[in-house]
Amino acid sequence: MKRASRHYSALSLLRARLSGAGFWRPLWTGNRLEQAYDVVVVGAGGHGLATAYHLAKDHGIKRVAVLEKRLVGYGNVGRNTTIVRSNYLLPENHYFYEDALRRYEGLGRELNYNIMYSPRGVVDLALSDDDFPVLARRGNALRLAGIDAELMDRAALEKFVPALAPRRRRRFPIVGALVQHRGGTVRHDAVAWGYARAASALGVDIIEDCEVTGLHTTGNSATAVQTSQGEVQAGAVVFATAGHTGLVGKMLGVPLPIETHLLQAMVTEPVKPLLDTVLVYVAPGHAESYISQSDRGGMVLGGHIDGFPSYTREGAWHRLEDVVRATVEVLPQLGQLRLLRHWAGTNDMTMDGSPIIDRVKYDNVFLNAGWCYGGFKAIPASGAACASFVAKGTPPDLIRAYCLSRFATGHLLDEPGYGPYPVKL
Amino acid sequence: MACPFCGLRPLEEFLFRKTVPNVGAGSGVHLGAGAGVDAGDSASAYAQVYLRVDSAEHSVEEWQHVAGCRAWLLIDRNPSTGVVRSVALLGGAQ
Question: What is the ipTM of this complex?
């Protein structure tokens, strides 16, 4: 048994500096698969690790395993554009994401791990007169819910984001913006590593290279999961495998309102500090795109999904082009930068754009899925709520709306408002 | 992508609409833990409107050649490789 990671503090880091490499230990331990667990969590991404952490910490469930087919944080938790925000229009969504953002604000302290939360502000740009009242409506909905939102006119915006000051002629003028100041970025890998370290310290077993291939059931209950390392008895099973939920649906024999699409992200060569906020924009003729500058200086770009089912993790060229063109419309000074890297992740797209956290088919099988392109910013709230659901058997109010039956009863959470499709026709 | 009318055309001319479920409407449908759901009519409507096929190997999809002849197409693809197995006119040749 390896020794657990040490507590980090200014004093301990100073001691580490003096005592050399001996201070540092692996962030998580306990890689031997036991025969039985109270709860088996499938998927060591953000949601799975956070769920396991909260099961152990809030509910005292000690025998918890997180089974991962590849490596901790190999999936979308390490592929996103690191943006956190809670500026959603619908109450069910903005209360949930606000819970996540509040938890993110204190997460570094809670996990004793630096997640590099940077509340640099998320700026939704209005690029036409029509965009502005739409943003104002969303801002009003947020303020009524007690969530910070500031509507800025062009003059105020140019002061807040100097990179937008009109040095060059733009085809579409910037009218104003809706700003959430507490929104910003969080180091994505650190969230996975921080949760894994904290969960491991509470006794959670994190098993990498362990693919779940089947589920054993008796009547209305699951009894065990079949894995590539053997069979494991399970008191409850949580599937947190967003990006591969289709396989889970097949395993459970439950068709789901989910398709898997690709979302691309890309980074330019590093440049000097230019942008200290996150900009989100829908340039006319383009899909939504967003940009922020990383601590290394690279401009991190993302856009909308590719728009058709794919598991290739290779983005379509025309979607990459669209993101770049939209970005150069908004920030013409970036036109000569070169792209350095580009990648894609597989996204669970639900047919209303909102997630699903529910008990499915069996009394003790839980599905945490359908995060679309909003999974990273949801992790702390999703983990806490999902753990509470598993431990108590009833969903907390915060995620009651994320039930699977909403599609049948018509209580959809269609944030973009274009019907049961992941992309607008 | 090969359109039956226009031949090989760039992918961005085509728009994906939905995967076509291969289950009969309502079969195998499970609505989750939500109580008070009428499992009859709502399950069937749910299946027809919202259920999709999410397979890594085989996907039958409705597409439209929007920036071309605007025909609706039924496309059989492998989402893990992007290889298109067949393209047919949606609803059969007319």
Answer: 0.89
